Amino acid sequence: MPVFKLCMKIIKKNLPSMMIYVVVFLGISIIFATNASKSQATSFSSQKASVAFISEENSTLIDGFKQELSKNAVYVNIPDETEKLQDALYFRNVTCIIRIPKGFTQAFMRGEDVQIQKTVVPNSVSNAYIDISINQYLNDARLYVRNIKGITQEELVEHLKTDLTVNTPVDLKNTQVSNDTDFTMNYFNYLAYALFSVLILGISAIMLVFNNKDLSRRNFCSPVSAGCMNLQFILANFAFTISCWATMVGVGTLMGIRNGLSRNFVYFLLNSIVFTLCVSSISFLIGNLMKNRNAISAVCNVVTLGPCFISGVFVPQELLGDNVLKIASFTPTYWYVKANIQIASLTNLNISNFRQIAYCLLIEFGFSLAFFAVSLAVGKKKRMSNT
C-alpha cells in the first residue's frame, strides 16, 4: 500500500507542529481537572460593612437604630471632620458614613418625612445590606408612629426590636454537587479546538503533496489503479482522523475515570464522533484549496480560533450576545457546543430528551455532507487541471 505509507510519512513529518495544539489542549484540560472541585458546599453569610456613625443628638430611637444596624455594620470611630471623613472613604477605612442630623428624632416622632444623611463608596456591595437595614428599620418605625398615636420612643424601639428579630428560617444543606458532568462538557468543548487544528494541519499537508501537479501526473502513470489509489488515500485520512479522535478522547476518558465518569459520557462520545467527521470534511476542503504550505498555519488559526470564540468553546454561550450566536449558528462548532450543553443538562436519559440532541447532531452531519460534496467538486476540478 504505497499511497497509504506515503500519507503516514507526510503525517509523521508534520507531527511536531500538530503536537503543539495537542499539548496546549491537554494542558488546559489538566489544569481544569486539577482545579475542579468534586463537591461544593451550599452556604451563605453576609458581609459587614465598615461604617462611621455620627449622630448630632442622643435619643432612645437613635440608640435602638444604631444597635439594629450593628447586625450588618462594624462601627469605626472617626472624628467629625470633613477632611478626615473624606480620607477614610478614599482609603476605604470605611465604606459608609451615616449622619443623624439634629432634630431628627422629634421630627420623626411627629410623623414628618425626614431622612438620614448617608455618604457611601460607589459600587460597594457590602453597603447593600446597610441600605436594606436602614430602610427596613425606618419604614417599620413610620408605620408605628402613624398608626399608634402617642407612642413613646421606648415603646417604638421595643416593638421594632421584637419585629426585626423574627427571621424566615432558611435551611442551607451542605449537599454534594457533582462537577463530573461540567468537567466532561468543558473537556469536550475544548476538544473542538484541538481536533480542528490537528486535522486541518494533518489532512491539508497530505492534500498539498498529492495535489502537486508533477506528483499528480506521475501517479496517473503508475501501475496502481485510480480506484486503489483513492481507497488507500481515504483509508490513510480515516486512520489519521480516528487516531486523533481516539487519542484525545482516550485522555479525556482516563481523566474522567479519575473524577468519575458521568452517565452522559456516551452521548458526549457520539457528539464528538459526528463533529470529528465534520471537521475531517472541512479539512479535506481546505487541503484542496491550499496551494502554499506556509498558508496552512494561517488558515488553521483563522478557521479554528474564530468559530471557537463565537460558538462557546472559550466563552460560554450564555455570555455571548444574540447577534454573535446567530453568526455562530452558521458554523458546526456552535451546534457541537450546543449539543454538549444539552447533554450536560440531561438528568433523565430517554428518547424524548435525546431528540433535542439529535437535532444538533443532524445539523453537524449536514455540515459534513455539504463540505464533503464541495471538497469533491473542488478536488475533481483540480485533478482535471493537473492532467
- Helix count, DSSP H or I runs of 4 or more residues: 15
Structural class comes to: mainly alpha
Outline type: elongated
Major pleated sheet: 4 strands, mixed
Radius of gyration, CA atoms, in whole angstroms:
34 Å
β content, as a range? under 5%
- Which percent range fits the helix content? 55-70%
- List the secondary-structure elements in sequence, H or E: HHEHEHEHEHHHHHHHHHH
Oligomer: single chain
Spatial order of the strands forming the largest sheet: 2-1-3-4
Account of the protein in words:
- With 387 residues, the protein is mainly alpha-helical.
- Helix content is 68%, strand content 5%.
- Strands 2-1-3-4 form a four-stranded mixed β-sheet, with helices on one face.
- α3 links the parallel β1 and β2.
- The longest helix is centred in the C-terminal third of the chain and has 36 residues, at 351-386.
- Mean pLDDT is 79; it is low at 36-43 and 172-178.
